[in-house]
Design goal:
With about 250 residues, the chain is α/β, with parallel strands linked by helices. It folds into 2 domains: about 140 residues, no CATH class; about 110 residues. The strands form 2 sheets. It has a 7-stranded parallel beta sheet. It has a two-stranded antiparallel ribbon with strand order 2-3. The radius of gyration is 17 Å and the shape is globular.
C-alpha cells in the first residue's frame, strides 16, 4: 500500500508481527498500528503484534504494480525475524528479483537482525548465480553506539546498496568506521515521535550529516521527531536545509 514514510513509495507486508530486540523498538509504530488494523478486520492482524504471521497470498503483489517504485519490505515485521522460515524468505527474494526485473522496482529491506540475514544468504546464495539481486537494498537499524556493530555484520552481505537507519536516534553516533570504508551507501536519520517520544538532539543529526558528506554517502533526514508531531516533510531541516538524498545506483 502507498506509504507515508518519506524514503519509500510503497510498503509490502507478506509477514506481520514482530518482537522487540533493543531500545529502539520500545515505541515502535507497529505496536500502535496493530490494534487499529485488528479492529478494522484487516487480514494478518487478528491476534497479538507479537505473533509473527506469514501471508503467502501477498507474495505476488509487487508483480501487479506496473509503475516502478521503491518498496519497503515488511514495514510491520522483520524479514529476518526468527519466526520467518528461511524457505519463506527465499520465496520473498525470488519474487523481489522477478518484480525488479519485470517492473523496475527497488526493494528496501531493513532489519535489526543482520546476523540472521547473513546466515540466510550463506545457505541460499546458490539460488542467485548472478549474485545478490542489484535492486534489493539491505539495511539495519542503529539507534545508539552500542548497536553500531550491526553494521559490521551487515557488511558481510554483498548487497550493492547497504544502508543504516538511525531512527529513533537516541544518542550521538560515530559511524566513521563504516562510512569511510565504503560499507554504507545511505544514512537515514529520524527522531522518535508519538506518545513518550525520546527527544533527538539536532546536533546528533548534524554530526551524521557531516560524517556522511565527508564520506560522500547519501544522507536523508526523515524527521526531527516529537511527542505532538514528527516534524517531517517540510519541517525536517538542519540549519534551514532539507536533506533527502538517495543512493547513486551507477
Amino acid at each position: 500500500m502507498p506509504s507515508s514514510i518519506e524514503w519509500t513509495d510503497e510498503t509490502w507486508n507478506p509477514v506481520t508481527g514482530c518482537s522487540r530486540v533493543s531500545p529502539g523498538c520500545d515505541h515502535c509504530y507497529m505496536y500502535a498500528l496493530y490494534p487499529r488494523l485488528k479492529g478494522m478486520g484487516v487480514r494478518g492482524y487478528e491476534t497479538s503484534p507479537d505473533d509473527v504471521r506469514l501471508l503467502p497470498e501477498r507474495l505476488q503483489t509487487p508483480l501487479s504494480w506496473k509503475k516502478p517504485r521503491r518498496v519497503f519490505v515488511n514495514s510491520m515485521s522483520d524479514v529476518f525475524h526468527p519466526g520467518v522460515p528461511f524457505d519463506f524468505v527465499l520465496e520473498m527474494f525470488q519474487v523481489m528479483q522477478e518484480a525488479a526485473s519485470k517492473r523496475g522496482h527497488i526493494f528496501q529491506i531493513l532489519t535489526k537482525r543482520p546476523g540472521r540475514a547473513v546466515a540466510w544468504w550463506l545457505r541460499h546464495e546458490d539460488y542467485f548465480p548472478k549474485g545478490w539481486p542489484a535492486r534489493i537494498w539491505m539495511g539495519t537499524s542503529v539507534e545508539s553506539q552500542k548497536f553500531a556493530p550491526r553494521l559490521t555484520v551487515l557488511a558481510r552481505l554483498p548487497a550493492p546498496v547497504r544502508f543504516v537507519s538511525a531512527e529513533p536516534l537516541l544518542e550521538q553516533l560515530d559511524l566513521t568506521e563504516w562510512l569511510q570504508t565504503g560499507k554504507l551507501k545511505w544514512v537515514i536519520v529520524g527522531g522518535e515521535s508519538g506518545a513518550g517520544a525520546r527527544a533527538m538532539d539536532p546536533d546528533w543529526a548534524r554530526s551524521l550529516r557531516d560524517q556522511s558528506v565527508k564520506a560522500d554517502v547519501a544522507f536523508f533526514l526523515k524527521q526531527l521527531g516529537g511527542v505532538r508531531g514528527k516534524r517531517g516533510g517540510e519541517a525536517a531541516t538542519i540549519d534551514g536545509k532539507h536533506w533527502r538524498e538517495m543512493p547513486n545506483l551507477d
